[in-house]
Amino acid sequence: DTCGKVIKCKAAVAWEANAPLCIEEIEVAPPKAHEIRIKISACGICRTDDFAFKGKINDLKFPLIGGHEATGIVESVGEGVTNIKPGDAVIPLFLPQCGECRCCLEPKSNVCYKSDVGKYTGMMMDNTSRFTCKGQMIHHFINTSTFTEYTVVDESCAVKIDEKAPLDKACLLGCGFSTGYGSAVNVAKVEPGSTCAVFGLGGVGLSTVIGCKVAGASKIIGVDINSDKFAKAKEMGATDCINPNDYTKPIHEVLAAMTEDGVNYAFECIGTTETMESALKSSHFGCGVTVLVGVAPSTAKLCIDPMLLLIGRTLKGALFGGWKSKDDIPKLICDMMANKFNLDGLVSHKLPFCEISKGFELLNKGECIRTVLEY
Ligand code: COD
Ligand code: ZN
Q: Domain named Alcohol dehydrogenase-like N-terminal: which ranges (predicted)?
């Protein structure tokens, strides 16, 4: 029984920015009050982890253990944890839901004051870490840190899911899938018969395509500079795919010609200000809605003609598909198990956890949709 004891296990430690990940033996302290120690089962590799390891996130502190798109089984819980018990299947939440802050009490918001996104303290709520390696303190990453066999999270940062859920797929509901899918069905609220454009056909863009399809869109146009992404996008529900490099005129004009002056809903799933502007311009002038999904570099500024909005377009954005993480992930798990949508096409590669570096190579070569690590 490991309850109350320090656990020694393997973790991928990022000692500093731009250095290879090292599989190390680390010590994981027992959970304190209102904390949960989780044995990780599976974890997806997300672009945000790669940004973090490349030092592209300002204020992020090293050494750290990354990873945030996972499933696991609760090993033990700290004092005062009542709604989660050892043996429960859980998804760690990079977007917590404490249930008490102004955002959590606001039905229209899904962010939480306890979130470490943007603050990057790299610590638990009491400003200490539960990880050590070779005598050094190791930082946590956005309240999750899942590139380790065991992690500790605050009780606001994990949600119990159906124990029968396939954990090797369900991990994608912890970030990429929920982000894209929710942007369509929850943030934009795509309507049956409407027209949609999805800029960027990576894992997040494809999940957006799935959302547009489930919502009943009649036309779903995928936009990507890599035409190799088109076959998969069509499999997931895109009705048309276009490559901006195949046209001399701006892509919003191409989309306007395909959709009677513009789409009802446009989604930016790339993260550049140029494609955000294109997405906005490709939405219909009188009624189009554009959702920003991708995160632009922290110094980027969007510079647009205000008339684009004044005339009737709507521009919005959301993290994590607008879902309230604790309330909505269990419902998404039910929808997945009822085959409302199918995630199989998103998992392009599976690797054992110790081959994590290979997973990042695949990501950087643009060869994968999602790699899922199995522990
Ligand atoms: N025009 C068209 N397509 C382009 C362009 C361009 N100028 N540039 C790149 N693309 C294509 C690429 O070929 C690729 O197919 C796609 O865009 C991007 O896909 P991926 O696989 O690199 O990335 P995803 O889909 O895994 O994620 C992309 C996001 C930008 C959405 C993601 O990195 C992000 O910003 N997520 C943040 C959302 C969030 O909630 N973050 C918090 C925790 S992760
Ligand atoms: Zn992510």
A: 33-162
Kindly give the number of the ligand 1 atom that is closest to the alpha carbon of 274.
Answer: 7
Return the residue whose CA atom lies nearest to atom 20 of ligand 1: 202
Provide ipTM, 2 decimals. Answer: 0.94
Nearest CA, atom 10, ligand 1? 200
Q: What pTM does this model have?
A: 0.96
Parts of the chain belonging to CATH 3.40.50.720? 180-318
205: CA distance to ligand 1 center in Å?
7
**Would you place residue 332 in the very low, low, confident or very high pLDDT band (cuts 50, 70, 90)?**
very high
Dihedral class, residue 183 (left if φ above 0, else alpha if ψ from -120 to 50, else beta):
alpha
CATH of domain 7-174+343-374: 3.90.180.10
Beta carbons of 36 and 78 less than 8 angstroms apart: yes
Residue in 189, 191, 223, 194 with CA at minimum distance from that of residue 206 = 223
Q: In the CATH scheme, what is the code of domain 180-318? A: 3.40.50.720
> Looking at residue 291, what is its pLDDT?
98
